[in-house]
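(Structure overview)
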Amino acid sequence: MLKLASDVWPPFTDIRDKNSVATDLVEEALHRTGIKLENQIIDFTDVIQGIKKGAYHGSSALWKNDEREDIMLFSAPYLQNQLVLVGLKGANVNARQLTELANRKVAIVESYAYGREVEEASKVRFVRGKSDQENLEQLFNGKVDYILVDDLLIQYLVNYQQKEAAKFLEIGTVPLLIRSLHFAIRKDVPNADQIIHQFNDEIVKMMADGTYNRILHLNWIQADVDGDGQLEMVLGGDHAGVKAPSNSYSVYFQNSDSVSSNSHKYYIDGQIYNDWEEIPDTYKVAPIKSENLDDVSLLKFSF
């Protein structure tokens, strides 16, 4: 059994019974290879120190850096964190990099390691809140000009809270920060290379068979499921919607450095369609959304 550790980082990792898509994806991929895991949720500083000391074999969700790569093997990226600028309705959210927000107050989550882009944007006035929900409340209370929100939460807004988002928020379309997310284990774990290799293989299969969409609670994702270097729109299930999707969540994986996002191909039930018109009408029905919204990390607009 692998003993893994993560911190509270909704909707990617969280305590049991809360939406934790990264933990669930890793658990499913490892389960398919016959590996069981135990995942503990602790403070992030204790996660890294515990892995270094051998108390844990690794983590379900880590960003890469040189120090971590010294002691751990990292999987291919299986998700990406894309941080998007959000402001109140009418705000200018067209910035393409953080340095364009000089003298603006931008809320970020205090426990996240945003990296050098935040460190180098010295003229931006970053305000650290405890959560995305707290940051949203600061935005509505006029305490900050903008918040940085992960694109997965944006997709939940678009899919499950469209009316609230359209009424109250302006959402940027260009990610200001992108980080690839990895499963990682210590190099001294027996068969570590094999575990990582098998994990990578299962992740690709899960993208193609609809498991990703189910765990992420999204109808459409973008992924290169056929290995041609282009992202396909991948449907989970057989309810494509009555019109072509206008947005989807982009998934990072093995050949992400060379992937093009300019493709308009669709992948449905094992079949590639070159455009929306090619898709059989039997698929063009309204999508089925999560019956239990407690399974989805929704932001609260009732202040």
Notes: The first strand starts at residue 2 and ends at 6. The chain has nine helices and 15 strands. The first helix runs from residue 21 to 32.
